[in-house]
Design a protein that fits this description.
- The chain is mainly beta and about 130 residues long.
- The protein is built from no helices and 11 strands.
- A 6-stranded antiparallel beta sheet has the order 2-1-11-10-7-8, with no helix packed on it.
- Strand 10 and strand 11 form a beta hairpin.
- The mean pLDDT is about 90.
Length: about 130
Amino acid sequence: MLELTMAAVSAADAGATAGMLMADAPSEPGAVLRVGRDRSVCRLPTPDDWLFVSRVHLEFRCGPDGGWQLTWLRGSQADPSSEVRLTVGEHAAAVPYGGTVPLPRGGSGEVVIVDRTGPRSVNVGFYHEV
């Protein structure tokens, strides 16, 4: 099972945890959890006015072996207005625009979407239960 917890943070409410959203999915091949503004397909919807997050921004997908991967989906713009970072333990790395990275099996961490134009972010914590 992959469990996600999301919080949207702006400069005005930095450090606040109110309004957290949660979603989970079994670690079955083809299972998908999405993050973005499109509430019809995203289990974790971001605020509608946060245009730095695409309609469907991130996709967590379970592979045939039960392992999960994260994809930053390419949008309509050649250059995104956000940055995406993956942190696992003390290791942090940028996720490339349009790129896919594996999540640690049986591990936890955080994916942070940062607005390049202002002090706002969407923080998605994950925990892969095996």
